[in-house]
Structure formats: C-alpha cells, structure tokens
Amino acid sequence: MSHDIAKGGAVSAAPSAPADRSYRALVQRRLIWLGGGLVIFLSLAIVDIVTGPSMLGLAEVVNALFAPSGASSMTRVIVHDIRLPITCMAILVGMALGMGGVHMQTILGNPLASPYTLGFSAAAGFGAAIVILTGIALPVVPWLTIPLSAFAMCLIAGGIVYFFARMQGMSPEVMVLAGIATLFMFQAAQSLVQYIAAPEVLQAIVFWLFGSLLRASWSNVPIVAAVVALATLAVLPNLWQLTALRLGDGRAAAIGVNVRSLRIRIFAVVAMLTTGAVAFVGTIGFVGLVAPHIARMAVGEDQRLLLPMAALTGANIMLSASVLSKIISPGAVIPIGIVTAVIGVPFLFFLIMRGQRRNW
Amino acid sequence: MTLRIDALGVCYGASPIIRHFSDTWRGGELTALIGCNGAGKSTLLKALAGLLPASGGVSLDGAGLRADERGARIAYMPQETGATSSLTVLEVVLLGRLRSLGMRVPAGLIAEAVGALDAFGLAALQTRRIDEISGGQRQLVFLTQAVFRAPRVLLLDEPTAALDLRHQLLVLESLRNLAASTGTIIAMALHDLNLAAQFADRLVALHDGALRAAGRAEEVLTGPNLMDIYGIEADVVRVAGARLQVMPLRAAERVAAPS
To answer: Which residues of B27-36 are buried (b: 16+ CB within 10 A; e: fewer)?
Structure first.
C-alpha cells in the first residue's frame, strides 16, 4: 500500500500515468479483437454468398451483387433471392443467439445458460409441429403460419417462466428451474405430436426441428432484422448495469442497480431475440452457448464490447456453419442445426477441458 | 451533516431482526457497529442503504430519504469478498460511478479511478481480473469502489475482515482521515473491539437487533456491557497512554438471554 492512504488521500490522489496507460492498452487490445471479429465476419459473409450447389464463380457472384444488370437472370435469382437472404438470415440469427446467450449468462449468473435454457426452443418446436400436423394455414400469409405458431408458443413459454419467477422475486435459480420445467413440458407435447403424426408429417416435423437457413427469404429476413435491431436498442441504456450484474446481485444492488427490474427487462429482450431467431429457421443449437464464451475470452466482460463481440461471434459461427453445410455434401445443403451441433460440441468439450471457470 | 435513524425495524418473515433502532450519526465521525454474530449489524447497514424493506425513517440533514433515494447519497460495501467475474480491477472501481458511465467513459473519470486505486496502493492491479487477486486485495478494491462513489454516507460491512494487520491499520486510518477531511458520515460493522476502540469516534453496540449501548469507547466497552452484549468476562485496560484495550478472559457459562 502506498503512503497516500496514510495521509488520507483516498480519492483525489494524482493518477499514475503508466498505470492509466496500461488500462488503455488493454482496451485497445480488446478493440483489435473486435476489429478482427469484424474482418472475419466480412470475409465469411463473402465466402457464404459465393458458396453454393450451383457452383457459380466468384466473378459471377460479385457481378450479380454489384452490377446485376450485367448478370444472367438465373445468376441474379440465385444470388439475390436465394443466397443473399440465407447469408443475411445466418448473420441475424447468429447475432440474436450470440446476444441472447450473453444476456442469459449474465442475468442467470450461469456459464451454461443459453437462450434455450428457458424452454424457448422446445416451445417453438411444438408450435411448428402442431401446425405441420394439423395443416392449418393462415388465409393471406400461409408462409407465416409456422413462424407465428412457433412465436406464439415461445411467448407462452416466456409467460410461464415469468409467472413463476416473478412470484419468487425473479431469482436466477427459480428462472432456471421454471425454464427447465417449461422445456420438459413442451418437449413432452412435441413428442406426443410426433408420436401421433403420420410418417411423412413426422419427417417434415423433424426437418423443421433440425433448423435450416433454406427457409430464409426476403419476406422474413426484414422481420428478424427488426427484432434484432429492437432488442439491441432496448439494452443500450443498460450496458453498464449488465456489467455490474456480473459482480453478483448484492454488489450490483449496492452500487445502484435495480436488479429485479433489470432482470425482467433483459428476460423480455432474450424472449424477443430467441423467438425471432427460431421462429423462421427452427432450432439451431450451441451458438447461444458457445459464442458468449468466445467473445468473453477476447474482450472481457465490459458489455459495451462483449455484446457486439458476441453478436459478431454468433454471426461468424452461423456463417461458418452455413458454408460447411453447403460444401460437406456437394450439390446438397445439410440442415445448419446439425452443423452447428457438430462444431459446438467439440468446443464445449474444449471449454470443459480449460476448466477453472477461466473465462467466466 | 447528520444521518438520523428513527425507529428502524426490519423483519425476515415474522422474525424481527432490527427492533426500533434509533440513533444519529454525524459527518466527520467514524462510527463502529459492534455486537455478536447475528446481532443485526449487517442487516442494519443494508436497510440503511435501502437494500432491505424496513419500517421507520431515515433522514439526511433533516430531509427524509426514501429507500429508492438512498443509493445516490449512501454507498454500501457488502461483507463478502468472493467474486466469479472476470472484470478488471479498474472496471470494478469505475462501476462505483455507475450513473456517470455511458458508451464513452471520460478520460478524466478513468484517471480519477486510477488515482483512487493508487491511493490504496492498487494501481498496479488495475488490469488484473478481480477473480484472480487475493481476498484481501479484493476487499481493498471494493472499498476503493465505495470510496470512489464520493458518497455523503459510507456504510461498510466488515471492511477489514480479509486484511492483514498492516492493511487493517492503514485502511482504518484512511477512513478516519476521509471522514475528517470530507465530513463524510462513515459507519462500519467491526468485530475487532480493539480496532474499534482505536479508530472509531463512536461505538454503537447492537444486541438481538436492538441498540444496547452507544457512545465513546470508554462508555461502551465496559465489563458489564461486554458481558451483556457478548456474554464474556473481559478486562478493559488503558494502554499507550489513553487507548482502551479489551482483553477477553472467558466466555460466560450462559450467554445473556435476548431481551
């Protein structure tokens, strides 16, 4: 301890310049990581658009993107109406799951939490399964029937978790337990639907549950974009409060965070992000669990950097999985939910091997 | 500056933890809350900070303070020193000024936080993770955070519990100087009666959630009071001229029953 403390200069002592610079250096290193994530993101987005079963060359794709009048109508359709929506959806879903994962791990204080911890994936799956089983279709917008049903079931799941958690003061333990109960409830309902479904209907249900970017279109991409934008704007005023929450409820409350109110608000944001992500493309696992851990390793826990880094990391995982899903089996596209699981599981083992909660 | 507490009461369920506590704490004074385990010291500090529902009233300089208004004027440092976060030491201190933090943190504020760390000899740790430093260092960091808030009232729960002897002395001396130089009202729960006698201007003894004795060390640390509050026989002697020292002799056969 320096001599200043004994003189009572606890607060107003002159800062030590080298020490100040060392924090700045740390922030600069973190910004470099963020910049690196952005470069990888842009590169992967280009690779994803260029990759596909129709084997278009790089020049053709670039030409279709930036000088569409010079490209053939088939190339234009492939690039603009098939590949671009898929790439945009991969980015948006990855961002939604990455940010949702950070929020869940923060408000629950649990490194194993993900956007699906509260049962949203099972609820969405049940919502989709029930529509596929019954064949119900909305009159004007039949393509919205499955997403809306999945969305509605996610809202119901969120309502159930919120009801029980609110009764117990929104404690993280109760939220997790209520989420697990909701998860099992919708999984059971989903299994029942699958059990009574005819074989061809069962196949359609299972395919939806795999999660696939092939459902992306210019009709649904703007909806998911709006959800992600709204959810991002909703948390911007709370970034430092969320950072403070990582010190624990007691310490956060002691420095002026209204922990209960913050938890309710972020719970609503996670519900919005997750339902937006799964309603159109189905259940895509591991992104929401793994992306926050990678982001935290790179930029620490300052949410001003962690949130964009998690969004970029989520998008990068989804773009990588999208590229892999197109090149693993040439001529076909493997459902991306399978690919993210294949990538995610080894990474989860890696995190376990690192142990000691090093980046949590 | 005075903090007046009127008939403060706190219950956990049906059990009263703090019973009609009334007292007045003055600016520039260091007040030590003493009492045995479970006497209600931590609960009292939390309730004063507005973190627990409580009956009764709290006013600062005559103006009543609702629980939700206290955060802006009263800084509270909890007892626990554990941390599972990977936030850096400087980030933890900056969080003390939560209301001043935005998307851009002013360079002046960072410099001020580094200065506060420097004053506690912690500037070299500023980029270290809070979960990678020792419990004592963490306690100093959280103390720095509380002081960095520049509050009018500073409530500290066992601020020296994890510190070695040298740091206990330095921290308490620093707090006493802070109170004297800024007029801050500082109250802290302390188990070490000798440190309380050495540094606190005023001792407040709690027993079973109620105020049992309050005043200068020589008024509170008496044989009968120590038997009443702690259930111990002790000699209270003067050392080094005027300072009181409590020398515990033995625990009484039966601890005095709560009133």
So the answer is: bbbbbbbbbb
* CA–CA separation, A97 and A288 (whole Å): 5
What token pair was written down for B129? 């993770």
| Cβ contacts of B171 on chain A, cutoff 8 Å | 5
Angle at A323 between CA A274 and CA A338, to 5 degrees: 55
The pLDDT tens digits for B107-146 are 899 999 999 999 888 988 999 999 999 888 999 999 999 9
Between these two residues, A7 and A115, which has the higher pLDDT value? A115
pLDDT higher than threshold 70 for residue A5: no
Find the residue in A nearest to B138 (Cα): A247
Cα–Cα dist A258/A249, whole Å = 9
Domains of chain B: 1-73+151-226 (3.40.50.300), 83-149 (no CATH)
Which of B101, B126, B150 is opposite residue A11, by nearest beta carbon?
Answer: B150
| A107 has a pLDDT exceeding 80 | yes
- Tokens encoding A287: 């992104």
Q: Which of A3-17, A161-175, B114-128, B153-167 has the lowest mean pLDDT?
A: A3-17
A105 min Cα distance to partner chain B (Å): 12
Whether B170 sits inside 8 A of A5 (CB atoms) is: yes
pLDDT in tens, A79-105: 989 999 999 999 999 999 999 999 999
- CA dist., res. B242 & res. B227, Å (int): 23
Strand partners, B58: B5
* SS3 state at B204: strand
- Which residues 266-325 of A are in CB contact (within 8 Å) with B? 296, 300-302, 304
Neighbours of B237 (CB within 10 A): 10
> Which domains does chain A carry?
50-354 (1.10.3470.10)
Both tokens of A6, joined, read 């004994």
Q: What angle do CA A303, B86, B96 make, to 5 degrees?
A: 65
Q: Does A357 touch chain B (CB under 8 A)?
A: yes
Query: How far does the CA of residue B47 sit from the closest CA of chain A (Å)?
Result: 11
pLDDT at position A360, please?
A: 59
CA distance B187 to chain A (A): 15
Q: Which ranges constitute the DSSP H helices of B158-247?
A: 165-182, 193-199, 217-220, 223-230
The average pLDDT across B75-81 equals: 86
User: Chain B partners of A257 at a C-beta cutoff of 8 Å?
Assistant: 98
Q: Where are the beta strands (DSSP E) in chain B?
A: 2-12, 15-26, 30-34, 55-60, 63-64, 74-77, 153-157, 185-189, 202-207, 210-215, 232-239, 243-251
Burial of A110: CB neighbours in 10 Å, binned 0-12, 13-18, 19+: middle
ipTM confidence score:
0.84
Taking an 8 Å cut-off on Cβ atoms, the answer to whether B147 and A11 are in contact is: yes
